[in-house]
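[job 4471] stage=fold_predict status=RUNNING
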Amino acid sequence: MEHSPASSGYARSPEDTAIAAMPSSSVSWTAILAGGLGAAAFALILLTLGTGLGLTAISPWKSAGTNAKAFGFAAVIWICVTSVLTSGLGGYLAGRLRHRWTTVDLDEVHFRDTAHGFLSWAVATLFTAMFVTLAATAAIRPGAAIGAGSHDGPLDVNAPIVERGDAAAAFNAWPVGYFVDSLYRIPAGVTPPPAAMTGGEAVRVETTRIFLNSVGAGGPLSPEDTEYLGRLVAQRTGLATPDAQARVTTTYTRLQQKRAALDAAAKDGAEKARRATISASLWLFVSLLMGAFSASLLATHGGRARDVLIIHQPTL
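[job 4471] inference complete, writing C-alpha cells
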C-alpha cells in the first residue's frame, strides 16, 4: 500500500501538486547517461594519472622483482580507489539529476535511486570497456602488420627454429649457431690446418642440419653422425680424431641442456603469466563490485539531497 507524501514526512507544495499531475517514468535515462559519461571521463583522468605515477615510481637501479611486486600492489590499490571514486561520482550525478517522484513511497524512492546508480555504473563500465578495446586494437594492428611483413616465406615466425628444421636460419640464430661455432674453435697453440680456410659456412650449415635432426627428437647423436662430425672437426681444428669426437658429443649435450633450460624458462614464464592473469581478473572483479556498490550507495545520497532541496525551496 502506497503512503502519501504527507505520511512519509514530505510537505506538499504547489510545485509537487503540478508534478504529481504529470506522468513520470520510473527511469531517468538522461540522468543515467550523464552519470555514466561523467564516471567514464573521470576514470580516464584517474587511470592516466595512476599510469604516470606508477611509471615514474619505478627505478632502474632497484631490484626488478621488488619493483614489479610494488608496482603490481600499487596498481591494484589505484584501480580499486579509481573504481570507487568514479563510480560514486556517476551514481551521485544520476541520483541528483533524476526526476523526483512525488507520489511514490520512500522505500520505492530508495530502490529507484539505487537502480539509477547501478545503471550509471553499468553505462560507465560499458563505455570504458569499449574505449579500452578500441585502444588495444589500434595498438595491436601496427605490430601485427610489422610482424607479417618481416618474412617472405611461409614459415611461422613464432615457431622455434629447431622445430622448423631450417638449418641456415638456425645457424644464424642463438643458441644453435653459438654451439656450432664453438665446435670448430681452434685450440690455443694449434696451427690452423688448411681445411679450416675453405668452405667454413657450408660445413657449419651441414653441422647444424645434423644437430637439428637429433635435437628435435630429444635423443643423442647417432654413432654415424658422431663419427662424421668428429672427422670434420679434426680436419678443421687440428684435434686428434678421438678428441674431436669427444668435443662433438660434449657440444651436442650442451646444446640439449641449453634447449631444455630455455623450454623450462618458457614454461615458467607462461605459468607466471597465467597466475598474473588470474590475479588480475580476480582484482578486477573485486574493483567492479566495489564500483557498483559505490555508485548505488551515492545515488541514494544524491537523490535524497535533491529531494531535500526541492522540499525546502521557498515558494512564491
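[job 4471] summary: Residues 241-311 form the longest helix (71 residues).
[job 4471] exit 0
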